[in-house]
Amino acid sequence: MSTTLRPIHDVAADLGLSADDVIPWGRHRAKVSLDALTRREGAAQGRLVLVSAINPTPAGEGKTTTSVALAMGLCRRGRRAVAALREPSLGPVFGMKGGGTGGGLATLEPSADINLHFTGDIHAITSAHNLLAAIADNALHFRDPIELDPRSVRWRRALDMNDRALRHVVVAMGKGNGPMRETAFDITAASEVMAILCLATSVKDLEARLGRIVVGTTVAGKPVRASDLGASAAMTALLLDALMPNLVQTREGTAAVVHGGPFANIAHGCNSVLATRLALAYGQDVITEAGFGFDLGAEKFLDIKCRVGGMWPHGVVLVATHRALKMHGGVPVSKAGEPNAAALTRGLEHLEKHLETLRFYGLPAVVAVNGFPNDTDEEQAVLRDFAARNGVAVARHEGFSKGGEGALELADAVTSMLDRSDAQRPVAKYTYELGDPPAEKIRKIARTVYGADDVVFTASALKDLDAVTALGGAELPVCMAKTHLSLTDDATRPGRPWGFNITVKEVRLSAGAGFVVALTGEIMTMPGLPKVPAAARVVVHDDGRVTGLMQGE
Asked: What is the domain-level CATH number for residue 159?
């Protein structure tokens, strides 16, 4: 699909950004100076819309496609809408899912460039992460500037690629290179440096957060931080350009600020605070997204990002598809594309739980049905009846096949929600207070957001909680790491389960990012490629065009 893109300075001018604010990165990409944000401090802010979803099928339910389509639909209605979204990682681009810039006629552009090297942000994060790893191993070798205990070093290495062979490695082999030790690689999206960049509010804050990273301990058990190794300033220097948000456009020329891409399980799964603030400072309606379903991405958006960024959404768009609802109604994923109104009806219990959680937060919502050609009239009628009974707006969109024109119904429903929100603005309500003990924060999330009866902590997790408290992490937010396929910690339990507990196996302190990570189930921080990776369908044409990065392309 070819399209004619607008010069990036024209896109910037529509938002009110000056030529001095924009640092071009080719013809259709740009960095935006942080001065542009500083200059708008205290000015009127746009209306923030969070796009989340029900728990998805493994293929995902199209949150990014919906976000892009909605922004374009709002622009068609005369609104100055801005999409504020995450950057794709090369791991899924070449792995299972393919590109992360939307789909069909609802894409971020230039799509191939954004999906590949973009403006180098993820490479800079990888470099900063690995610089700290190299400095830590150098300190181990020379026992200077501080004597690290080799057994305690928790800082691994990072690579923006799916590579299962790097999940367990041995480093420092060979004479004079030691001490030899076992370690591993994480994908860059799972790096604490990625989470730090996305939560940092200034260059000074970035360096302070980097300095607080706990690398390991001394033999005596004293924590060793990046600042103790003299690494934080050099890491900051590598990240100066990466800290500036990126400006691109949608296929229809709508402005999009695309910046940062932390994992939504091991980290908080949202684009950067600075990018969202920039979009709010210059846009009327800002469409942002949180990774995976409402139970993971949205909860972290509200409890972590909104606390740090001093923001709160005016409303939520909850994305659903017929296939996901049928999966939650007991149909295998392989059969979820087939007509089955009965299974869809059963799956509505799952949707209902997410709506209950939204009401807990006091947030209005529109259910956005990402439409597929095989959706039946009978299934659509079931959804409309559900909406009428539950007093929630449901809007179907066909952004994939029709672009912004296919999202006008959704845009109108969201505008009505926002207009009502203007009259009675939602007030921030968090799942827990920062003063709650870490274990209680975890329980409140599990009971309120997942519907669990209780939380079970393993013996090692209880020891971890004591260690986190000793390191000063007791009053930090909690970042839950669990499967995105279920409200439980068991990926094989779709729907709305009842009478279950969440088991916490491990608790980690991400001191630089500023949250405590509670791990449940099996969480993979270095994915592997599938048997036939998405990389196999990439084609480079004679004119230099790259296709095959997106599914169906």
From this structure: 3.30.1510.10
* 452: containing domain: 438-520
Q: Is 185 helix (H, G, I), strand (E, B) or coil?
A: strand
Distance CA 111, CA 99 (A): 8
Q: Which helix (H) or strand (E) holds 510?
A: strand 501-510
Segment 262-315, tens digit of pLDDT: 998 889 999 999 999 999 999 999 999 998 999 999 999 999 999 999 999 999
Tell which residue, 86, 79, 89, has the closest CA to residue 108: 86
- Kindly tell me the burial class for residue 258, based on how many C-beta atoms sit within 10 Å of its own C-beta (0-12, 13-18, 19 or more): buried
Q: Token digits for 342?
A: 């009965």
CB-based contacts of 522: which residues, under 8 Å, 6+ apart?
none
Reported as a single tens digit per residue, the pLDDT across 425-456 is: 999 999 999 999 999 999 999 999 999 999 99
80 closest CA partner among 287, 283, 315, 286? 283
Inter-CA distances, 32 with 25, 256, 485, Å: 10, 12, 36
Amino acid at 362: G
Task: Check which CATH number belongs to the domain holding 493 and give it.
Answer: 3.10.410.10
Q: Of 192, 222, 241, which residue is a domain's last?
A: 241
Give the total number of structural domains in the chain.
2
